[in-house]
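Exercise: predict the fold of this chain.
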Amino acid sequence: MIVAVADTHAVIWYLHADERLSPAAKQAVEDAAATGDQIGVSAITLVEMVYLIEKGRIAAESLSRLAAALRDVASVLVELPLDLETARMMARVDAVKVPDLPDRIIAASALLLGVPVISRDEKIHHSGLQVIW
């Protein structure tokens, strides 16, 4: 069962065991792994990671690590589609409060599944969505 959706930076920090991942976020991922649950990773995160690699903002190995995790059937991370249902759910994410397109897609994915977003993004925190951080 998918118990949360992680935003792009949360995924990157989890994959690199980066201390910027909050203790609560790390615990949420570890708890999901321990119980056989999963953390969703929106397809937009894959696209955003390519963009961040091209801009030199993250290491190229970040995408390789995520790809390996998504291929591993035992991984806590699972890819979520960017589909019509997700696009329609975006209407419920206030574009004024969450103006960044990838963040809106990630938030819509969480709303669609009825689970919290793992994110440190202040705009997501102030959007009224359930957030783990």
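Check your answer against the key: Residues 53 and 69 are 18 Å apart (CA to CA).
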